[in-house]
Protein 1
Amino acid sequence: MKIEDKKRVLREMVLHRRFEERCYQAYIERKIGGFLHLYPGQEACCNGVMEAARPGHDYVITGYRDHVHAIKCGADPKEVMAELYGKETGSSKGRGGSMHIFDTDKRFMGGYALVGGPFPLAAGIAKAIQLKGGDEIAICFLGDAANNQGVFHETLNMAALWKLPVLFVCENNLYGIGTSIERSTAVVHQHKRVAAYNIPADECDGQDIEVVYEHARKAVDHVRSGNGPFFLELMTYRYRGHSMSDSRGYRSREEEELWKQRDPIFILRDRLIKEGALTMAEFEALEKETDAYIENEVIKFSEESPEPRVEDLEKYVFADRETQLPWLTGKAA
Amino acid sequence: MANIMYWEAIQRAHDEEMARDPLVICMGEDIGVAGGTYKATKGLYEKYGPLRVMDTPISEGGFTGLGIGASFLGVRPIIEIMSVNFAWLAMDQMFNSAAKVRYMSGGQLTAPCVFRSAGGAAHQLGAQHSARMEKVFMGIAGLRVVTPSNPKQAYGLLKSAIRCDDPVFINEHELMYNMKGEVPDGEYFHPLEGSDIARAGTDVTLFGYNISVHWCLKAAEILDKQYGISAEVVDLYSLSPLDRAGIKQSVSKTHRAVIAEEDEAPVGVGSEVIAIINEECFFELDAAPVRVHSALVPQPYNHTLEKAAIPDHEDVVKAVLKIFGKA
């Protein structure tokens, strides 16, 4: 990666980290309800892959740990936070919540809360791309535990059979909710599981963004060149629990500390310092600047935004009735 | 007017819509090279090719989700689930993805797909190939459910379902694909909402849908000829939403109601129609409404037991006679 790109991505990753930590705080303050799944520790995965892809051009879909993927695709952090606050200005107008961030203008096709659910949806998006003849690809980010769902295999089979332009990114964070991969999955290295479908696959360190980027570039090129699907496994770690109610009793603090020594932000920061492109003072200033932006703009916007109107409770269940009348009443022009 | 079969009507709707719009595609098991289990997609593979007429693996959850994903980008997939019994495997995607995506994205995404499936019990297919499941689909916010009782509806409902931006589930019937009926020669769009009066009457309303409309029509004939009772038959081709106004209008006229459903009774079409009658026109009733329905058993294989499990026109006649104190 070029120096200027690495500096830009560092800035983005700091935003992603601080955004998520601020969500944690807002949740404790009961500003955010429901379930909240946070991304710290895994930032190099989404950022590395999307640096190799084209955010806003390629279609991205993921599970419920979705805030950072949306922001990376171009969603406004203010709108993502407002969604968590349940506000009308939220990216899904307060109807979705943390697990259902959408920004279709940026081709972020949503966060879905059934584990594995996005697999066939991603293949379907790829099918639509294939029919329309565009050069976009579909990118499906999911965790390792999703691969134990039946639709994982059903989707791999169809994606390979029809040579669909879809990149499956497996963020292997070693835990499915509160069960370790060794205790839930017969094969720890997920890329081995796709060999049965003749889908090319690769695995790499998910903590070092430059490693992710190099592997993702090959994966993206493969898919964009019309060679069909690709499966990329990134070995990573989720610092926080599965969601907010998770006290992490299923793993040791020592294990967590070991992973934190390979923090994706610190790896990139230290490399830039070593390369003479950044000073520690600059990094600390960046963190402060990011916190100020989150506080003064993101949180302020979310706090001050209006609630949805109760009169609009049933809006968005179906398409706008006026536009559908010919088919609802049979009185087609 | 052409006198064509139910399957031909469905095939014609596919063909017209696929000829009009290159983003209309169809997918399902055996629908292409094999021509479709019930011939509903006959000849389409030869005409439109494998990219648009997709023979899928036997992966209902997978290919249903794939069709839904394609619909996010404006593709209009007609997804055939060979037997409604297999829809259990696809319901996560139908309910959690297609039906909810519009709401949970604040109106940004919509899933304009059509799910078609052969419902109903045929002959001796046993417990896992004979389930009637229309009631399972009825209570899902964001999903429309229609069920054609004749070739005209089969054609016109599919045409409208393809054009509509909402996901639509079409419950067909395994025993009705060879039924003949009049279908307009020109393009025709059947309304996705409302109900049809299949036969006008004054003394009792018989509510039916799909195959049970035919039980009701036959019963009405017998009631008229043998008992001098004038029965109105209301065809509830739209199961979700149900036609509240139509139900109210007919019961307010006849003051009596029988609901005939091929599904089992609990949490079904009959209970829902009776709840609507209670809410809309309770004081118009001269007698308590009666449900005619299947027994709550996994469908038996044995011919005699199977016949005993599923109602027919005679059960509808009996229910009406009971209301009139003649049984």
Protein 2
Amino acid sequence: MELLANLGLGLSVALSLDNLLYALAGAMLGTAIGVLPGLGPVATISILLPVTFGLPPVSALIMLSGIYYGAQYGGSTTAILVNLPGESSSVVTALDGYAMARQGQAGKALAAAAIASFMAGTIATLVIAMFGPPLAAVALKFGPAEYFSLMVLGLVASIVLAHGSLLHAFGMILFGLLLGIVGTDVNSGAERYTFGQPWLADGVGFVTLAMGLYGVGEIVRNMEHDDRREPMLKKVTGLMPTWADIKRILAPTLRGTALGSLLGILPGGGATLASFSAYALEKKVANSQVPFGQGAIEGVAGPEAANNAGAQTSFIPMLTLGIPSNPVMALMIGALIIHGIQPGPSVMTEQPALFWGIIASMWVGNLFLVVLNLPLVGLWVRMVTVPYHLLYPAILVFCAIGVYSVNNSVWDIYLMAGFGLLGYVFAKLDCEPAPMLLGFILGPMMEEFLRRALLLSKGDPGVFVTRPISAALLTLAVVLLLLVLSPALARRRAEAFQEEQ
Amino acid sequence: MKAWFSTWLAALLVAFGASAPQGAAAADQPYPSRVVRLVLPFPSGGPSDLAARAFARSLERQVGQPVVVDNRPGANGIIAARLAASSTPDGYTLLWATSSTLAQLRLQSGAAAPSFVPVTAIGKFAFGMFVSPAVKADTVADFVTYARAHPGSLNVATSTLSEYKAAVQFMKATGIDMVRVPYKGSSQALPDLMQDRVQVNFLPVAAGLQYARAGKLKMLATLQGKRIDAMPDTPTMAETGYAGLTPPGWQLLLAPPNTPRALADRIAGLAARALQEPELRGLYASQLLDVDSAGPDALAALMKDEARGWEQFFREHDVKDVN
């Protein structure tokens, strides 16, 4: 009953007229800016952070959370419509979402994403309200050894992401791992593959890489057909999902929500894995009518649910421990400190209205997103009917602005152009960028956690198998690897590959 | 509404390089007659970013012009420092630097490091010694005894050059040996410290204080010269009998090389007034940032001192490059 009283307190805060307006404003701003390619939640929040300084703390946080979900949702919109994932979590949404869009089902994909996100958001809000503090304790149990094993599992799962040749997938993962090495080594401070350039000292940015490979690369590829100045699609079918579609996405949404809620609480990379692992899971268990990678609605709903649930549970370490699980949470901590509140163990007891108000507003924000976005689906879909000669320059300009806004660095724009050419080469060679991006994200974290775990164990590699959570994760990775490499599966992959031809 | 709108318009102008008319006409006008850019070597959200943003707001009120924070994170501050060093020395581009930024510059460029013109010190974040709650020690003396009994088995977390320096100086002063475990930031180090995967971390008190109050960490000493008001029962490191630890944590305001002295003095005066604002003082007090608005001369002496300290540290410990 205490839970009900707490949620009641939260709702009374979140449903006040002011806070409703801030949640709405946040969701709208977030969606609007998130839809622009390259401008993800981090860039959006850091730009808008000072705007919230004048607001009361709860309202500021409610608005920032709205921007966070909104930008994330907007990011999925560009991933689906124009194959432009603005952040790591929408890379997998692009796989089947863009395939659906090419078949004229962009509206269906967008609506599926919105509905899955809302369902995940509702469940995750309840999860946080009921299990927030105990889950935070679980998150603390994850040390370097556990994180390393989790990353190994994620890397193995990334092979499942590819639907072409296994060799290409391996090659792309390795290339991603190598790209991730660029930058300054945390342990020794030595610079690796930076060629003495200060703009490479912190490595290659995710946004730079993704915008180059996907955005610029895709445009260069389409330029080949210089006589085709027509829009991608003339006819848009299936604006809204049918009842049968909704039934099909129900199970993937619930599975994605469970995975996302669990991985989201892990600070430092957990949430990144959520959408990838949800996709890998769906590919294994979902009984889809359409092969994955060719427009399976399950491949949109599962990862989108995981991504949204993870985004929400990533508030747990921030609100209960004061530990930011991603750069957006770090910005929120900054916003609270400006208002004289130090996020941490004491927030829940000393600021119950703030704590429960934010939790209740998560649900309110998600509701706004659905209400805002479902009617907008028709509008977004018209974006793909814009002729190339108008759409492409606009995408290029927004990619450049987005990439620039991350570090205020012009070099990143040149780098993006370089990756654009690389993306074209990859497309010609039939190499998918998604496994490479996962290798790129996981590689540096894996290395960091491996070396830290070994430093802490004084060089004994036994920690990875003697610690129960780590051992369980590694076992899972081995099983998955065996499944992938087993001849029967390899045959099935070959068949799938031939179908595509 | 209007205030932030104009600030953001100004920010856009700065971001896209469309600065207001410069040259002869501007030279006649009193400083500042247009937007002042404050280059910051950190991403938004961290403690130094907060301190700088709050300062920028106060300075804005003093100068009557927008002061725009320009976050240029990366390469441990080198990117921001190089940008500021190559800007026109007209007072419209300033650099917010920390002890670690200057140390990193020295480490990378040695004597060739750009000689920024000191404007004013802002203050200093209080540092403290935090240990895991599982460590059987409630005082620094207990900790040293404990560490001597377990040689080489304790870990010390470090996330910045300043934390590294404090850890090395502590080991030298006490003669104990610990394994240094590098982290990218205290948000990564704190969970490991709370779970006793690492045993000690010298970090800004503001980052660890709430955990010490909640019993999730133990704060054994402060590195400041005097006890801090927030933890009046925690002794200073000097009181515990170990000398030779220089408290890090300086936040400084610098101007590009060759900025005229008169201009530096003018900005220092405006900054000193901004630092008097009660609202700013209140935020800095809550962040345990001790305000010390040493002007150009005092700051020059301070920077020389700091430089000597770092050089000695790099030499003695053969530091080539860390973090």
